[in-house]
Amino acid sequence: MDNVLDPMHGAFLHRDSHSMFGGDTSARFRIRETDRGFFFEKTDQVGVNFDWVEYVRGSMDFVDTEIPYAQDAGPGGVFGIVGMATPIDATNSAIFHWRTRRVQGWEREVWRFLYRTRLEAKHWTVLEQDREVLEALAGDADAEEHLYQHDLGVSRIRRIYRADARAQAAVPAGSVS
Ligand SMILES: [Fe+2]
Question: Which of 54, 101, 126, 141 has a Cα-to-Cα distance from 70 of 20 to 30 A?
Fold first, then answer.
């Protein structure tokens, strides 16, 4: 969740990767509240790179974002990604990314062909970059870090999860069926 709540990482970690070469490496961000969570978004760049992410608290927490695609990625609008993380134990999580694109008719067939033959492998490359960074992080990596303006969204969800953890720890063991 930290990873996706930092849209700026696309311009650094994925700079040489598919669809993320454009865009500035610095930006101003703001938090915009919604009735189901909040947006963390750039104030000075929209529709260029990985410019916003929405964090949603529902029956399950998830993040939602859109990656603009160049014309050589075939027909269709922006590429949508919905991310979910399920902690399993102290060192393992299952991470899910739903990928979406709205395309109709024959263009949909073109898109499916392109995706299967060319683009899906590139997406896995990007996800593997994220996985390698996350797996290499020390368990206490969040103890000695210096968060800056791009990390407002990260700080926010850490507060949310810290509060969740305290509330859950306060419930006596065995009292929840
Ligand atoms: Fe990433």
Answer: 54
Tens digit of each residue's pLDDT (9 = 90 or more) over 36-49: 999 998 887 666 66
Cα 21 to averaged position of ligand 1 atoms, centre (Å): 13
- pLDDT under 50 in the chain at which residues? none
Q: How far is the CA of 125 from the centre of ligand 1 (A)?
A: 10
Q: Taking the C-alpha atoms of 72, 74, 76 and 80 in order, what is their torsion angle to the nearest 10 degrees? A: -70
5 Cα to the center of ligand 1, angstroms: 10
Token pair of 161, please? 């999860």
Q: How far apart are the C-alpha atoms of 18 and 40, rounded to whole Å?
A: 23
Asked if 56 contacts 64 with a C-beta cutoff of 8 angstroms, the reply is: yes
Hey, where are the domains in the chain?
Answer: 9-156
**In this predicted structure, what is the pLDDT of residue 176?**
61
Q: What is the pLDDT at residue 148?
A: 79
Residue 116 has a pLDDT of: 93
Centre of ligand 1 to C-alpha 170, Å, is: 34
Residues found in the chain: 177
- What does the pLDDT read at residue 62? 95
| Distance from residue 102's CA to the centre of ligand 1 (Å) | 22
Cα separation, 99 vs 72, in Å, equals 18
CA of 105 to the centre of ligand 1 (A): 31
